[in-house]
Amino acid sequence: MPKKLTLVLTAIFLMIMTACSAKSTDTSVATTPGSSPAATQATTATPQADKKLPRVAFVYIGVPGDGGWTYEHDQGRIMLEKELGIKATTVENIPEGPDAERVFEELAQKNEIVFGTSFGYMDAMVNVASKHPNVKFLHATGYKTSPNLGTYMGREYQSAYLVGMAAGKMTKNNHLGYVGAFPIPEVIYTINAFTLGAQSVNPDIDVSVVWSNTWFDPATEKQAAISLLDKGVDVLAAYQDSPASIQAAAERKVWGIGNDSDMNRFAPETYISNPKWNWGPYYVKTVKSIMDGTWKSEAYFGSMKDGITDIAPLGKNVPADVKVLVEKKKQDILAGTFEVFQGPLIDQDGKVRYEQGKKMTDEEILGTTWFVKGIKGVIPK
């Protein structure tokens, strides 16, 4: 090969190698030792996302598999994650008491927002909130608030009234039963609303109440249900998170009413309906307000109109005329033309608590410690 051609080819080769070397040097600047460009991009993107999205945690009294209370809260969490792109932390099966306070303390050190989903968490959340003023705490069903602690609840009594109407139409012997969870205001006023709804279509109704003192204990709740069934009630309602009561009723071929979530699948042949929760919109709205800096502590008491509570579809064996009756009253509630707790309201001892036309205030409803006329049972002190 002629020397001149050899020199030309050598020069071209050196130019190509120099260009490749320069390209390699540029790439190494964009990476860190031992990482690929893709890994570096993920590393730098994550902190930016973390700054925009708060860390959120939920504390559950039970497990989502309960098919009731905790299941519906978990559905709300899922909606929150989908709408805001947040991956929340969940802690399940946390009993009310000292263990709860320990869990809330640990979560407060790692999260900006903490939701507690049981009444009995109240004092634990109050104590932990006082130590972490920069963390927002939201407590379901409680009544104590502070600058960084709010409460949230829905007017489940509206749904309970509608279910009571259906129960009043379905009974044959006018004797209904109700398995109460704990003798706290939210349970008491729900039983009252159920009774008033039943009496609105059947004034001869009476409702026998027993207490399980549980939120989720199927064995105990079933025994409580059986004690009422043995007394001859032909419609049985319950306030617990499990379907144990309506399953016990189904075994006796007695109409059953569940709680918290649509429980039709547990006793489809004898199912009437039940109050149903929908927490998702509240969780989304609340977290958004915290993110944009507009959140303020409050005692939120939502309604059927807000969508936080509703009535599950009436069972397949509930007559069409009953479904029409209940739907009409539901529309009255949504339109604001009907109030559940409006006088005359008479307690089980015959005392007039509210005169004709007088409405109970929210504070009075949330502080209810008495049963309406027609309820057989005592409220333990």
From TrEMBL:
It holds the Pfam family Bmp. Residues 55-333 form the ABC transporter substrate-binding protein PnrA-like domain. Residues 1-22 form the signal peptide. Residues 26-47 are annotated as: Disordered. Transmembrane segments: none annotated. Keywords: Signal. This is BMP family ABC transporter substrate-binding protein. Residues 27-47 have a biased composition (Low complexity). GO terms for cellular component: plasma membrane. Gene3D superfamilies: 3.40.50.2300. InterPro entries: ABC-Purine-Binding (IPR052910), PnrA-like (IPR003760). It comes from Paenibacillus ferrarius.
